[in-house]
Design the sequence.
């Protein structure tokens, strides 16, 4: 599963977010990857959220490439910065689009450490690393 799909699945499971208790509107994400278009529709009604894979009408449409969407879902790209660079196009309510940015992770998730990967702060060959 892509990071983008996992992000939207987590939103669908959460169903609500108190930070959006005064927000109502809909946002459709048009995520393009060459000739393939993936669409997600987020309906917000005073903090209650409903997420569907749909190309239905929305008050705000966010157009983004698949690589940028993936990076945002992993917390590697800031949405406002991506809008400023022209990597994201917004049609409709820009204020709502900017608020949606709060749903994305702010920092990249740490990479898992395993037997072949030294833990953070240690390098292979360090006296304390055991290698």
Sequence:
């Amino acid at each position: 599963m892509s990071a983008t799909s996992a992000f939207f699945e987590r939103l669908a499971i959460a169903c609500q977010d108190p930070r959006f208790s005064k927000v109502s509107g809909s946002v459709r994400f048009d995520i393009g990857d060459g000739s393939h278009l993936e669409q997600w529709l987020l309906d917000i009604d005073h903090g209650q959220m409903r997420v569907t894979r749909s190309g239905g009408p929305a008050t705000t449409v966010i157009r983004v490439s698949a690589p940028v969407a993936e990076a945002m879902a992993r917390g590697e790209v800031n949405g406002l910065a991506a809008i400023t660079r022209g990597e994201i196009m917004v049609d409709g309510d820009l204020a709502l689009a900017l608020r949606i940015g709060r749903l994305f992770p702010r920092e990249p998730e740490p990479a898992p450490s395993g037997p072949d990967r030294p833990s953070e702060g240690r390098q292979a060959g360090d006296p304390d690393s055991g290698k």
Remarks:
- The chain is about 25% helix and 25% strand.
- Confidence is low (pLDDT under 50) at residues 117-126.
- Residues 3-14 form the longest helix (12 residues).
